[in-house]
Amino acid sequence: MDWKKMYQEKLVSADDAAKTVKSGDWVEYAFGVGASYAFEEALSKRQKELTDVKIRCDIGAYPHFTLENDPNLETFTWNSWHVSAHDKKWVGNGLYYIPMKFHENPTMTRNNCVPDNVFVAMVSPMDKHGFFSWGAGNASAMAAHETAQKNGGITILEVNKNMPRVLGGGEDCIHISQVNYVIEADTPLPILAPALPSEIESKIASYITPLLVDGACLQLGIGGVPNAVGTAIAGSDLKDLGVHTEMYVDAYLEMYKAGKISGAYKNIDKYKQVFAFAMGSQELYEFIDDNPSVVAYAVDYTNDPRIIMQIDNFVSINACIEVDLYGQVASETVGTRHISGTGGQLDFVEGAFKSKNGQSFICMASSKELKDGTRTSTIKNILTPGAIVTTPRMATHMIVTEYGIANLKGKSTWERAEALVNIAHPDFREELIKQAEDQKIWRNSNKR
């Protein structure tokens, strides 16, 4: 077959592709930097022609043109698997969150829990065999494509020369014969520059790094602490580390360049750095482009606790907003104010603990400054009313602040309270003890 000819036959303008959307349709965009720019902009122009169009995405990395062009929310409604910094201004103003365990996303999609009529993904240019890589946005792309096709819908590829070609893994590419339309764009990928670790983040990292061993396999979440851990590892004596993660970030690149990553001792995917999606610097995108040492899988592989637990010495490092004295972890909301999403935190907390010699760390500063200049503890007697529990107390392993590590596994309620008070900010410890006494989770013999 002449794949180039087929490509030309399916090539249309973004405006023509947007005309495929009908009133009442569900439109799904691929994950993160794999979402749409050109198609989304073209669709926004049809605001007056359509009604009740639902858009679903996961980390909206590009402008939400449809919401910007629909100020009265007459036509478009966004639904997000995870709220990014870019999404926050739209929460409660046209954008709604979809609760999930990330590893279940492809299963929910294929089981028609999330119907699609139109699926759009930004992909790398077609290779000589007629394949496009999902690039830095694999996650659940193939499941969304299959569901759209099963429902008699449409798959549209937004081909972008700036998207890296990421080798697979699994479900990492799609063929020109499988899609309905192709549009072309030249959109710069969003840059997520790693910030220098703060003093507190570096202190937290200093507690974690000594617990790691040569050959350990790492999952780093989003935020300053995972970056700080990567920096600490890059300057350590550790070696032969592995990578199995949902999000591939610059911290891994820093460790790789320092000679710390080989994957030589991974039980599965040996010598490969495994991830579902990537966001970071331009250097990171260039590093993963056509690089056989990094491979992309769908998230029902990368985040499945049954897969994670097969890898010995697995180490999961994530961040949170607050923790209560029972060990419940809130990483998504402050009270009812939505901040983020479950993501893969629970997936990796459970998978890492079940790994042979595995460790799961959830990290945060012990206090934070409020808008009025006052300071509050991030370790609470109870979670802020309305807060969503991301990691339930029975799953929580280790909580880390700049004052140390609280290992909660196997601990009763009074032991948990004691361990968490000991890593709370000193200014709040007496208050937490009094609250623990009132809640009857503090023993008379506990140290004050």
Low-confidence stretches: none
Query: What structural category characterises the helix and strand content?
Result: alpha/beta
**If you consult CATH, what is the topology of the largest domain?**
Glutaconate Coenzyme A-transferase
Number of domains: 2
State the total count of DSSP E strands.
26
Under the CATH scheme, which architecture of the largest domain would be assigned? 3-Layer(aba) Sandwich
Task: Outline the secondary-structure elements.
Elements: H1 3-10, H2 14-18, E1 26-29, H3 38-44, E2 53-57, H4 65-68, E3 76-80, E4 95-97, H5 105-110, E5 118-123, E6 131-133, H6 141-150, E7 154-160, E8 173-175, E9 181-185, H7 199-208, E10 217-220, H8 224-234, E11 242-244, E12 247-248, H9 250-257, E13 273-275, E14 277-278, H10 282-288, E15 294-296, H11 299-302, H12 305-308, E16 314-319, E17 322-324, E18 329-330, E19 333-334, E20 337-338, H13 345-354, E21 359-363, E22 367-369, E23 375-377, E24 379-380, E25 398-401, E26 404-407, H14 413-422, H15 429-438
Parallel strand pairs: 1-2, 1-5, 2-3, 3-4, 5-7, 7-9, 10-11, 10-16, 11-13, 12-14, 13-15, 16-21, 17-24, 21-25
Antiparallel strand pairs: 6-8, 17-18, 19-20, 22-23, 25-26
Helix pairs in contact: 7-8, 8-9, 14-15
